[in-house]
Write a structure and sequence with these properties.
Helix content is 29%, strand content 29%. With 1003 residues, it is an alpha+beta fold.
């Protein structure tokens, strides 16, 4: 990180018109200061050359200006708002006398807190802010600092002299190259190690307790100088110093870097931050930043230093993914800005843009140009802009010249515009085309349309890889590539070569999701408030809202990132089905972050602590561990950190392995029934509209009944509010027509009742309990559209208290189904997912409730569960949710499923069976206020042929009154194909009102 005080000044004042200090190319600035560490005081004189009529404007902030002279005569001046204004009546030299007090104070260790304050005191001198009247133009500085005896001092210098005289130390610095400011650091504790390397004087200024580190820092300094001389050009100055500071700084100034004591002691700094700061000697301290047009230097330095070091380890893709993840988590519509507007880092969001996104832009620029051309353009850029202010336009010019390309579109997209492209690819279509393989992929861009080349990595057997460009230039489009042979795997942007919005699968739940959230909710019960007070207050300072755990609504869970202070059992039930979120390791303080299962854009944090002391020792540190999903501290020391796994690449296709079956193991249904009979719950899946599946289900039920008369039948097709109707029908107190009418079967399930009639008839004949498993359709429909949070108290009163949303494999299978049918809007998928989990959990609760409430079945009773295969395959829909509740043994039997590992215990392949279906009038009906109206007809409709028309209101069928769609379908259930049904309707007639009419329809 470069010295930021100049950035801060320019952020506020770069639009102020300022007259140059002199006509010379580089104005000279002489500065004499005397420093009193004991009194935390500084007195100084600044001398500058001026011309007649020239107005000078200098930034003074808290400095006290005591006098100003021109050619040794008093000169009036104006001091207002931290700015000094002087107008010179004649040519000459202006001297400004000033004083200041810099006592310092508490210093934030937050890496995004901005700059360290000016401090003069017993610990030493650190002047990196406004410590002298600061001009708004580049100057050539000569500094003379008078300090107590024994002090060593460092500033920007090509020439430096030091002498002890009269009990004081005088250190002189000359730096002829023009710069936009200088700094001064001094201490009476410095121990200096000096070397000469290739004509460069290298120094290490370290405190005695850290002196042993000096040699290693100088060795690494040599390596970095060699590295960057090869890539950029000769080191620009005669000396370079690594200087330890008592403040938590990480700055780079021309000829030295200033690193805080806490920083230099970290063992990895020599391999990371040191190289970054040395690279700034070229980028920012040789080629200056034109802040008015944007700070390009941090992004380029980050790319060529921090990113490059990871790239050498084979981890460049991880670094780039983390940069995109930081952007995703810290940047939002309220704090987002274009790269051209980046001036300096002040928080996580500005860092994500100015460092992360900018580094990605340079990576894309290198991919566009090629490494050789990129390095050549970089050398040209540094050479052509040496000791001058450069901008993004300067970079565009240098790279455009080397590449011979117009880069206006590239820079317009990535530098001048806000945001990142949001890109999605649909499923891969992989087809053999002769001896070649053709791969076609549809893509979509949301929001602004970018022109870009997205890399497709092709993996072949044996480890061979090929990277191909996919040109994306529309809102919706299709790309096709032809391969020589069948690949094993295809991955889009596997190495994160494109700056883009990450997909949900690529985004792990991490602490940054809490830190970067605009308004997270803190959930804490009153008795825990004092224990977690420090962390709660720190989060509230960052915008969090505190709520009592018991008052937390579903709307809070659905809309927010939530941080639980301690594990709340009731809330864990609602999110994770009662499963405890384990602390990954024993310790005094921990935080675990998981996906918010009710909102894929949010996260859930669970904080635990043994004592207030453990909280206070650790909580401040978690803000520096944003990329982790779990942390454990003990007495303030981190003892565990982990990041959850996430998908690598935007879209992944894998060639499916050929499934093989040992035919010797092929069995028959009676054998399957014998094996399943030992389980308490037997799940039998179906495709709802296939009679053969229901016939196989009945065979299973009969086989189980032959072994155990205490067999119940759970059915997805019926909903829990109608359980009494099922009980009455099995008991024989109502007939079939009444049963179908009162259960609203045809309204709520709609599949031909003949498909299930044999199973229900068997249950009635043998008095086997029929258990309605499903929740009311209205509730499922509402949740799928507007989420669980939209339910009323009345609607939620019978819903499961435990709902587990944590099965990521099930979630992704449901996502694929959703994307095929309803697009891929993430929020809509969240609601769809909530409705599916509610559906499954309700059925699981219904099964468990039957066993708990039916004494005769508690010990050795069984249940055959009839449900769609999607609800039971892999055990992820209903079976594992029932097992979580009661631990009962189970097996899964599927009909005509894909043979996949662990999809089921048994798969049946029943022969197709032709079965009679209830005849249909082949009309589309609408029901309202006990009137059934014809809204349309199926193709070749028997009703239309009979003379019925759209708008007809059906009054009766064979003189049986019709007031609902159920009435019509129940009546037709007892007809056969070829029968005739008399349909009485009310038809509106022009001019003559309504008229009853009758028609005979041949079914």
């Amino acid at each position: 990180m470069m010295n930021l005080y100049r950035t801060l000044i320019l952020l506020v004042f770069f639009l102020i018109p300022v007259v140059a200090l002199a006509d010379s190319a580089t104005p000279e600035y002489d500065l004499h200061v005397s420093i009193d560490p004991a009194g935390s005081k500084l007195t100084g004189t600044a001398t500058l050359a001026v011309q007649a009529g020239q107005e000078m404007l200098l930034h003074t902030e808290t400095l006290t200006i005591t006098s100003a002279t021109l050619n040794s005569r008093a000169l009036p001046f104006e001091l207002k708002g931290g700015m000094l204004r002087i107008k010179s009546p004649e040519d000459g030299k202006v001297s400004i006398n000033y004083e200041a007090s810099f006592k310092g104070g508490p210093v934030s260790r937050d890496t995004n807190a901005g700059i360290a304050p000016n401090v003069i005191g017993d610990e030493g001198v650190s002047l990196t802010g406004t410590w002298y009247p600061h001009p708004f133009s580049l100057c050539s500085y000569r500094l003379k600092a008078n300090l107590p005896a024994g002090y060593q001092a460092v500033s920007e210098a090509e020439i430096m002299t030091r002498k002890e005289e009269g009990g004081r130390t005088e250190v002189s610095f000359e730096f002829p190259p023009p710069v936009d400011g200088i700094n001064l650091v001094a201490s009476n504790r410095y121990e200096i190690v000096k070397e000469n390397f290739n004509g460069i004087d290298l120094y290490a200024y370290f405190f005695p307790e850290d002196r042993a580190l000096a040699k290693n820092y100088l060795e690494y300094t040599k390596k970095y100088i060699v590295l960057y001389e090869e890539r950029i050009g000769k080191y620009p100055y005669k000396r370079f110093s690594v200087v330890e500071n008592f403040l938590p700084t990480g700055y780079s100034m021309p000829t030295f870097t200033l690193l805080g004591s806490e920083v230099v002691r970290l063992p990895f700094i020599v391999e990371t931050s040191l190289g970054h700061e040395i690279l700034h000697q070229w980028l920012g301290n040789l080629v200056y930043i034109d802040y008015e047009k944007g700070n390009w230097a941090e992004g380029l330095t980050t790319y060529m230093a921090d990113h490059f070091y990871e790239e050498r380890k084979g981890k460049g893709w991880e670094y780039r993914k983390q940069a995109l993840l930081d952007y995703e988590l810290y940047v939002n519509t309220k704090n987002e800005f274009a790269l051209k507007d980046f001036r300096g880092r002040f928080d996580n969001a500005s860092k994500a843009v100015g460092y992360g996104k900018a580094a990605m832009v340079f990576h894309m620029l290198k991919d566009l140009a090629g490494e050789e051309a990129f390095n050549a353009a970089l050398k040209d850029f540094v050479r052509d802009n040496r000791l001058r202010k450069a901008s993004w336009d300067s970079i565009k010019k240098a790279f455009g010249k080397v590449e011979g390309k117009d880069l206006d579109l590239f820079f317009s997209q990535w530098v001048d515009s806000l945001g990142l492209p949001e890109l999605s690819f649909e499923d891969f279509a992989v087809r053999l085309n002769g001896s070649k393989v053709q791969v076609t992929i549809n893509y979509r861009q949301r929001g602004k349309v970018y022109y870009m080349s997205v890399p497709l990595t092709v993996h072949y057997p044996g480890g061979e890889k090929l990277k191909l460009p996919l040109v994306v230039d529309k809102a919706d489009g299709k790309v096709t590539v032809t391969l020589d042979s069948m690949p094993e795997k295809l991955v889009i942007d596997e190495d994160y070569d494109i700056a883009r919005v990450l997909s949900h699968r690529e985004t792990p739940p991490v602490i940054a999701g809490i830190i970067g959230d605009e308004k997270p909710v803190i959930a804490v019960s009153g008795d825990r408030r004092e224990l977690y007070a420090g962390l709660i207050d720190a989060l509230k300072e960052r915008g969090a809202v505190e709520k009592e755990s018991s008052a937390l609504k579903d709307a809070d869970l659905s809309a927010s990132t939530v941080v639980f202070m301690g594990e709340d059992a009731a809330l864990m039930d609602r999110l994770y089905g009662g499963k405890a979120v384990p602390q990954p390791r024993e310790g005094g303080f921990s935080i675990v972050v998981k996906d918010n299962p009710w909102n894929s854009r949010k996260v859930i944090g669970i904080v635990r602590a043994k004592s207030k002391e453990e909280v206070d020792a650790a909580f401040r540190k978690i803000f520096h561990y944003g990329k982790y999903s779990a942390l454990v501290f003990d007495k303030g020391k981190n003892i565990y950190k982990m990041t959850a796994e996430s998908q690598r690449g935007l879209k992944v296709w894998k060639k499916e392995k050929t499934t093989a079956i040992d035919t010797a193991a092929i069995s028959t249904l009676p054998v399957v029934i014998d094996k399943a009979a030992g389980k308490r719950i037997i799940y039998v899946g179906e495709y709802h509209d296939r009679f053969a599946h229901h016939a196989a289900q009945l065979d299973v039920i009969k086989g189980l009944y032959a072994k155990n008369k205490k067999i119940a039948i759970g059915m997805e097709m019926f909903q829990t509010p109608f359980q009494k109707v099922l009980d009455d029908y099995i008991a024989g107190t109502i007939d079939e027509r009444t049963f179908l009418k009162k259960s609203e079967y045809f309204t709520r399930w709609r599949f031909d009742y003949n498909l299930y009639k044999p199973i229900i008839d068997f249950a009635r004949a043998n008095k086997l309990p029929l258990v309605a498993l499903n929740t009311a359709r209205e509730i499922i429909d509402k949740v799928s559209k507007t989420g669980l949070a939209s339910l009323t108290d009345e609607q939620r009163k019978d819903l499961p208290q435990q709902m587990d949303f944590t099965d990521s494999d099930y979630r992704e299978r449901l996502r694929e189904i959703f994307q095929h049918h309803a697009g891929s809007a993430e929020r809509k998928f969240d609601y769809f997912y909530q409705s599916q989990i509610l559906w499954d959990e309700t059925m699981a609760q219904s099964i468990d409730k039957f066993f708990r409430n039916t004494p005769a079945y508690q010990a050795d009773g069984q249940m055959a569960v009839i449900a769609g295969g999607g609800h039971i395959s892999y055990g992820t829909g209903i079976p594992k949710r029932v097992f979580r509740r009661n631990g009962f043994s189970y097996c899964i039997i599927l009909n005509e499923a894909e043979v996949e590992k662990e999809i089921a215990d048994y798969i049946l392949f029943p022969a197709a069976i032709e079965a009679a279906e209830a005849p249909k009038l082949m009309v589309v009906l609408d029901e309202a206020q006990k009137k059934v109206t014809i809204k349309g007809f199926s193709e070749n409709s028997v009703a239309q042929k009979a003379g019925l028309k759209e708008g007809d209101i059906i009054l009766s069928l064979d003189n049986v009154r019709v007031e609902s769609v159920d009435d019509a379908r129940i009546h037709l259930l007892y007809k056969k194909k070829g029968d005739t049904v008399r349909v009485k309707v009310m038809r509106k007639k022009f001019f003559v009102g309504e008229r009853e009419m009758e028609f005979d329809a041949a079914l």
